[in-house]
Amino acid sequence: MQNSRRFLMTLTLAVLAVTGGTATLHADQQWVTYEGGDGPGKGKHIVFVSGDDEYRSEEACPQLAKILSQRHGFKCTVLFAIDPESGAIKPDHQTNIPGTEVLDDADMMVVFLRFRNLPDEQMKPIIDFTNSGKPILGLRTSTHAFNIPGDATYAKWSWRSGNPQGGWGQAVLGDTWISHHGHHKHEATRGVVNPKHADHPILNGVEDVFGPTDVYGIKHLRDDDDVLMHGAVLSGMKPTDPPVDGPKNNPMMPLVWTRMYKGETGNVSRVINTTMGASIDLECEDLRRLLVNACFWGLKMDVPEKANVDIVGEFKPSFYGFGSYTKGVMPAAYNLR
Fold first, then answer.
1. Cα 128 from chain centre
2. Which of 33, 36, 286, 323 could form a disulfide with 77 if both were Cys (CB 3.0 to 4.6 A apart)?
3. 0.70 exceeded by the pTM?
4. How do 189-193 and 253-262 pair as beta strands?
5. Which residue stretches of 115-260 are H helix?
6. Pairing status of strand 136-139 against strand 108-113
């Protein structure tokens, strides 16, 4: 096993030597940093914490980070669920996301997690950031980010917790796991702008949001949470499929919203959440734009009228599903080329 790991590390360093670019692989901790450059985001650091079993956060987060870095100048770090034996990305490994300590100097956290049970030393930076008053963007399954046993230090943040109700997802993002409101893998999602917030900066340049993931059930948002977009359940999996008739779309579920979260230390964070975000969803240009806009808005920066969200490098997202991730991928695979 040691020989295998040594070979993988040697191969990783060789790949980096050949590819160059402005991304840095931290070989020991297994995360990637895109240093950014000139642009409005210069000097700001956004950290992506990925780790879900189904929706390919390990593909989505690096692409979004590359866009923010290469198109807008932000420094972006992407953390992954890592197999401690091989050092490879293993999204269904629930107990290891190395590098969370980089959140200590981050300006924003983007979370794409599902049912993680991390050791205390990896959880602490996440909870410290949660209480920092800095902005947080949650994607898809982050409403049920943690599944922590009741005798653990951070058990109260588990998705089934009663104190706070619904754990981290409901307390911070606005809701925990409820249900698949649309028929999973049969009914896709169309974003419908809430007229009340049609002029919100996060919606700048956003006209047509579609994704093959289904609408989630949402029922615990506060009255002062601002729903920017609802999710229409479509009758099929194509962008041209019409919405289904009946109660699924009457009323429609919240799809994108903002809220303020007051942490345990009294600091207040701008929070943006969407139940979209699977890697395949990012084929939609306007969803990419919405997510980039959300980072600008969260950081209290001027949101571009129409942000450049062109794909960086090759991006061929996998369709979502349990066990469908590409096996044996090292973080070096997400280096800029």
1. 18
2. 33
3. yes
4. unpaired
5. 120-130, 167-168
6. parallel
